[in-house]
TrEMBL record:
This is 3-methyl-2-oxobutanoate hydroxymethyltransferase. Mg(2+) binds at residues 49, 88, 120. GO terms for cellular component: cytoplasm. Homodecamer; pentamer of dimers. Pathway: Cofactor biosynthesis; (R)-pantothenate biosynthesis; (R)-pantoate from 3-methyl-2-oxobutanoate: step 1/2. Its cofactor is Mg(2+). It is an enzyme of class 2 (transferase). GO terms for molecular function: 3-methyl-2-oxobutanoate hydroxymethyltransferase activity; magnesium ion binding; methyltransferase activity. SUPFAM superfamilies: Phosphoenolpyruvate/pyruvate domain (SSF51621).
Length: 281
């Protein structure tokens, strides 16, 4: 574990905004991706419910359960110590009433080891956010494109009209007022992101929302293209081709087995009794 003083806290993120130091956030879903995220130097690790799409193979984030999130958050927790660990509350778990939201958030923290939770929504969530914060649960908001609402709205860029920007600012202000320590701005225009980021004292973490946010977040599998011809939104920049590298290694392994080039002498254990004649069956 890294020194306690090293750890990224909610207060540190807010100081970064004041000092205009960009915040780097990345998703992770298990122990190795958590370890890689930490080693990269990110400030915040998000166990996103994008889990459902990039790891579990669902078509949207809607089927992801609280059990899924707890299970994966625990694994990421074991892989990281310095970054702030934020876990997503899945579809509906924070909309059945404040009591249920507190209970769900509590599980992500107590069983999953998260240091904060994230939930999708604006003004409508202010009472929920307030109750969590009063209970000692730091909340990251999430406005703009809300993937959990895909069946209602599709995946559409937000903040294109003045009216839409006004509503986003209202949401951001209401969430800040309720005590959210930061929020994700997903797929809003760069102009909207600038207006929102200037309207609130807490950091905005953008995804597909341009250069004026206080930080950026991307999905792990998008950054390193860890998939075989997977879906890739246009706002993503790919920094490595992990899918291709991994696939070519795996294919070579299979070829070696088929051609009896693996295993070789250095991969083998010997005893005293057995006699190996050196011929193949
Ligand atoms: N691999 C992956 N990366 C993500 O960023 C991501 C997920 N999965 N799953 C959960 C949500 C869903 N997200 C999405 C999904 C679709 C679009 C999309 O279709 N965007 C279009 C723009 C749409 C428009 O023009 O209105 C694009 O071209 O990027 C964007 C974000 C972001 N999240
Ligand atoms: C894309 C990020 C912000 C997210 O919410 C997720 O990974 O689920």
């Amino acid at each position: 574990m890294s020194e306690r003083k090293d750890r990224v806290t909610v207060a540190r993120l807010q100081k970064m905004k004041r000092e205009r130091e960009p915040i780097a956030m990345l998703t992770a879903y298990d122990y190795p991706t958590g370890q890689l995220a930490e080693a990269s130097g990110v400030d915040v690790v998000l166990v996103g419910d994008s889990l459902g799409m990039v790891v579990l193979g669902y078509e949207s984030t809607v089927p992801v359960t609280l059990e899924d999130m707890v299970h994966h958050t625990r694994a990421v927790r074991r892989g990281i110590s310095r970054p702030l660990l934020v876990a997503d509350l899945p579809f509906l778990t924070y909309r059945l009433g404040v009591r249920d939201a507190l209970q769900a958030a509590g599980r992500l923290m107590q069983e999953g080891g998260a240091s904060a939770v994230k939930m999708e929504g604006g003004r409508d969530l202010a009472p929920t956010v307030k109750a969590c914060v009063e209970a000692g649960i730091p909340v990251m908001g999430h406005i703009g494109l809300k993937p959990q609402a895909v069946h209602q709205t599709g995946y559409r860029i937000q903040g294109k009209t003045e009216q839409s920007v006004r509503e986003l600012v209202d949401d951001a202000e209401a969430l800040t007022e309720a005590g959210a320590f930061a929020f994700v701005l997903e797929c809003v225009t760069e102009e909207a992101a600038q207006t929102i980021s200037e309207s609130v004292p807490v950091p905005t973490i953008g995804i597909g929302s341009g250069r004026q946010c206080d930080g950026q977040v991307l999905v792990f599998h998008d950054v390193v293209q860890f998939s075989v011809n997977g879906f890739r939104p246009s706002f993503v920049k790919t920094y490595a081709d992990a899918g291709e590298t991994v696939l070519s290694g795996l294919a070579e392994y299979v070829r070696d087995v088929k051609n009896r080039r693996f295993p070789q002498e250095q991969h083998v254990f010997h005893g005293k009794s057995a006699v190996y004649g050196g011929t193949k069956r």
